[in-house]
Amino acid sequence: MALSVSVILFAVLNVIAARRVRPLERARRQAIAALCAQRSLVPGVPAGEFAVLGRVDPRWLTNAYRSSDQRLAIADFMRPAGKNTQFFSLLSFTVAGLNVPAMAVTLRNLTGPVLGGPPTVELESDEFERRFVVKAKDRRAAVMLLDPSMMQLLLDCEIVRFNMVGDEVLGFVNRGAEARHNATEPVEFALLFKFWDGFVPRVPALLRSEYASGS
């Protein structure tokens, strides 16, 4: 009898929680739609977008928008990870004319060292080094890209990280690791757009010359 009561109570609590979540999801969806409309983005993403991640199941994407020329896409991303679920916001765009070896800029894990992957690149900025870890197949390309102006952009964007391969850039925010925000203020999308606005103009001319596509 006690077990049956517990099961019923658990089910009721789940229903109540779901009813509370839906209005928040709707508020976030509406706020994101308004933010993307300001930039003339349209709903949906091209097939094969976010390719830097590998195969992406379309069911894992929500609040997805793209530019009319399909050079930019942004979305919330939910991916099963064993018994857990990962929650990210993603921004994908291209930097025309570049062919840069793979590199990744991630937030530093204060609980331990970052292991595996390409070699770690150290930069001449104590503030940046405290916040971020840079890994790159080509140290020279990473140092060129991450000049003082680009490092300041990343510091200003706070929780945005990125991977870059060739001419493709994937910026992302780990929503599961960040504090919850007001659903009507999609902070992750705002920061990703800030990152995009600043990234392309800051790509150094020397990098464009030394790592030009077709060179």
Topology:
Elements: H1 2-37, E1 42-43, E2 61-66, E3 72-81, E4 84-94, E5 100-107, E6 120-121, H2 126-131, E7 132-136, H3 139-145, H4 148-156, E8 161-166, E9 168-174, H5 187-202, H6 205-210
Helix pairs in contact: 4-5
Written overview of the protein:
This protein has one domain (2-210). It has 6 helices and 9 strands. It has helices at residues 2-37, 126-131, 139-145, 148-156, 187-202, 205-210, and strands spanning 42-43, 61-66, 72-81, 84-94, 100-107, 120-121, 132-136, 161-166, 168-174. Strand 2 (61-66) and strand 3 (72-81) form a beta hairpin. Helix 4 packs antiparallel against helix 5 (187-202). The model is unreliable at 9-20 and 110-115 (pLDDT under 50).
* Secondary structure: number of strands: 9
- Judged by helices, strands and strand pairing, the structural class is alpha+beta
The termini sit apart by 75 Å
The percentage of residues in β strands lies in 25-35%
| Amount of helix | 25-40%
Report Rg. Answer: 20 Å
pLDDT < 50 runs, ≥5 residues: 9-20, 110-115
Count of alpha and pi helical runs: 6
Mean pLDDT: 83
Instruction: Provide the succession of SSEs.
Output: HEEEEEEHEHHEEHH
Shape: globular
The tally of domains stands at 1
Q: Please summarize the sheet with the most strands.
A: 9 strands, antiparallel
Q: What order do the strands of the largest sheet run in, or round the barrel if closed? A: 1-2-3-4-9-8-5-7-6
